[in-house]
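Ex. 9. Protein: Pseudouridine synthase.
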Amino acid sequence: MNDARPATLYGTLHTLSAEAPQAGMRLDKWLAECMPEISRSRLKVLIESGRVCLDDAAVTDAGRRLKGTEVCVLDIPVAQPADPEAEAIALDVVYEDDDLIVIDKPAGMVVHPAAGNYSSTLVNALLHHCGGSLSGIGGVRRPGIVHRLDKDTSGLLVAAKTDAAHQGLAEQFAAHSLTRAYRAVCWGVPMPRQGEIEGNIGRSPNNRKKMAIVERGGKPALTRYRVERAYGQTAALVECRLATGRTHQIRVHMTSIGHPLIGDPLYGRQTGRGKGLPAEARDRLTHFPRQALHAFLLGFLHPTTHEHLLFESKIPLDFNKLTSFLEGV
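Predicted structure tokens for Pseudouridine synthase:
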């Protein structure tokens, strides 16, 4: 049943073979029997994060029933120290009190430690800035973190200093009662120029690094968009407002209607983009170094005072340079 069991448990690929007696078993239950060193809950997380393949296809459903003829590959990441360290990293603090802190995050900064990024994250900076006064609800790896922005998305993010603030903010995120608006630059001009994009978002069955609109499973997602300015037929500046908050939601939804974000390395396939532009202009647009996405508006009820707070972030320099360039092409 277990074709190969590397000597070290973490940081390895494990290849297992399902046989006829396992036909009909749940994937997570079978893996738990094969790998008793790992808890079933941990295996479920690995499956849902796309780290399990059956016959070379990623599987994200822990309840998947086996045929009894599959070859399974389980990718277990390297274990890392649990506690992030405080680092003296400059932060653009928009607002701060005893309960929470609002940061204008630059593009390129990861929010919390994870595989491949165990230092220089927003969490490391917050631990230094706040002197340890961060909510513990997020766990040792994510103290104070109520929500995230992708590494290369810039803009506003709120973190909790107390457990009570964390709980209050988390309830607002769960109820989708906050105000969250983004500006994005996409390829082409969406039609109609104002509308809604719906579609359940889940892990892509073909690429574990990507999210996708899925027919089965996933979580409901709704994005409202409005074209603020069109740059010919080449691109558009779009305001997107989140009615839900799913991983990569704007990036996935805009791609689904044929208008991926400029600079998006994961969803913004560059083939055929910028047709009709001079080669130099097309090259500059296709090599914009990050997804053109900025969280410019964030509003919520203060979890302690119940005051309505609304913050707006200026568009960053690289984003402004991009739109200024598009004005001239």
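Check your answer against this statement. The first helix runs from residue 27 to 34.
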